[in-house]
Amino acid sequence: MRLFASLSVAALCTLSFAQFSDNFESETASAGGTALTNGFGGGGQSGWYNPVSGSVDGNVFTYAGNSLGLASNPNGGNNFLGMKVLTAQGSNRAQHAVSFSSTVETLSYDFIAAFSGTAPSADNLGSVSLQPGATNYFQTIMQWATPVNHTANADAFNANIGHFATNGGGIVFDSPGTAWQSLPLNHWFHQTVTWDFGTNLITDTTLTDITAGGATNDFKPTGWYLAGGANNAGGLATPTDVRFFTSGSAGDIMGYDNASVGPVPEPASFAALGLGAIMLIRRRRKA
């Protein structure tokens, strides 16, 4: 049992490292929402800030009695980041610095969408992206109309990924597959996106309906690049931040939780873990 515990600790130390993570449990929250950011510029809670003048602040809500009317996240704690569009095309933003230090990285977060406006709706609903946009970035985007059109009733939405071609160019929004389409409102989903700064490729994305307890859907795209194109031929800088965003029609609502960005362990890391396990076993036998 002691050996198993030692191996478990070693595995967690190797695999759970994240350059940035926030489950919003350490921030001040309320049922009506407490500002996470603090107007344009710095001064927000836990290093969060509003990057664009005129943007509405992101707020931290308690799940209990939250005024957005969003369901509780089965994998959540007490609090979450919530955003609601107050006027058409009004934007809510919350951004945080991340020190990317690995070639292969994964962005992971939970999200939920709802609508309290008057349909029809505008296409875009919310997004999560690496920032600034002039760097080697990509964007996940929730849309009412693409590729399955739900704008007339705003009753379901699609979770797409904005990527780039081999030579860079403009951003293109594509669906990873049917599992990412016609998603029900007021369901919590968990999404991951993995990319390689070396090749500049988006290598994997997953989606799980947490509320329904469904299986994890996995898609490995081909030819989906970060801005800068193949092998970053455009020479763009590494991103410095991650941004959570909501915009579109008045009444668009997004919630986010369990956000993290971290390196994917390389084979050498697993080899080191295996070597450590062997050493622990040898020590136990000698004892």
Q: Level of helix content?
A: 10-25%
Task: Tally the helices.
Answer: 2
Predict the CATH topology.
Jelly Rolls
Rounded to an integer, what's the Rg over CA atoms? 20 Å
Low-confidence spans: 1-16, 267-281
- Form type: globular
Name of the CATH architecture: Sandwich
The CATH class, by name, is: Mainly Beta
Major beta sheet summary: 9 strands, antiparallel
Count of discrete structural domains: 1
- Percentage of β-strand residues: 35-45%
Structural class: mainly beta
N-to-C SSE string, H for helix and E for strand: HEEEEEEEEEEEEEEEEEH
Would you give an account of this structure?
With 287 residues, the protein is mainly β. The protein has one domain (21-267): Sandwich (Jelly Rolls), CATH 2.60.120. Helices cover 12% and strands 37% of the residues. It contains two helices and 17 strands. The strands form two sheets. Strands 1, 2, 4, 5, 7, 13, 14, 15 and 17 form a nine-stranded antiparallel beta sheet that branches. Strands 3, 6, 8, 9, 10, 11, 12 and 16 form an eight-stranded mixed beta sheet that branches. Helix 1 packs antiparallel against helix 2 (267-286). 39% of the residues are buried. Mean pLDDT is 90; it is low at 1-16 and 267-281.
